[in-house]
């Protein structure tokens, strides 16, 4: 099963938007992500509906941030791109009367609920601004302003 990378890909796009004052076209985003502009527009539509980005048509148009990066969490973006399932692990339910199946499913269900709650909590604690800050630190470490190594 191929992992769902919509969250990662859209965070990539949004981080570029934080650093670019000019709009990014669907074609430019598609080239960056190696996908089709239609896929970009479909995915970005969820971010637009949530109020995180806006789009302008025509010459000079494209996608821009519509919200403060400090107000956008990774959880917000996760939800805006459709809130894909976080775990591929699931319960067997061929024989719901089986006591072994009930025992196993109960243990897995509780564990998965706890893990999902932890992950969602952490996604909710990280903002797009925090990612931008981390990127800036990494950039400065690789390319010092004073030219030193």
From TrEMBL:
Gene Ontology CC annotation, any one: cytosol
Entry-linked InterPro entries: Tscrpt_reg_Rrf2, WH-like_DNA-bd_sf, WH_DNA-bd_sf
PROSITE patterns listed in its UniProt record: HTH_RRF2_2
GO molecular function, a single term: DNA-binding transcription factor activity
Stored Pfam families: Rrf2 (PF02082)
Protein's UniProt name: Transcriptional regulator
């Amino acid at each position: 099963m191929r992992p769902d990378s919509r969250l990662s890909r859209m965070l990539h796009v949004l981080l570029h938007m934080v650093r670019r004052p000019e709009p990014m076209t669907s074609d430019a985003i598609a080239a960056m992500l190696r996908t089709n502009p239609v896929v970009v527009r479909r995915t970005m539509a969820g971010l637009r509906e949530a109020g995180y980005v806006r789009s302008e048509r025509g010459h000079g148009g494209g996608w821009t941030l519509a919200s403060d990066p400090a107000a956008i969490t990774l959880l917000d973006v996760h939800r805006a791109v459709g809130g894909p399932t976080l775990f591929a692990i699931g319960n067997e339910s061929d024989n719901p009367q089986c006591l072994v199946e009930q025992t196993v499913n109960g243990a897995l269900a509780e564990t998965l609920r706890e893990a999902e709650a932890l992950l969602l909590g952490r996604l909710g604690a990280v903002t797009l601004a925090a990612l931008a800050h981390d990127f800036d630190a990494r950039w400065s470490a690789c390319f010092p302003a004073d030219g030193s190594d």
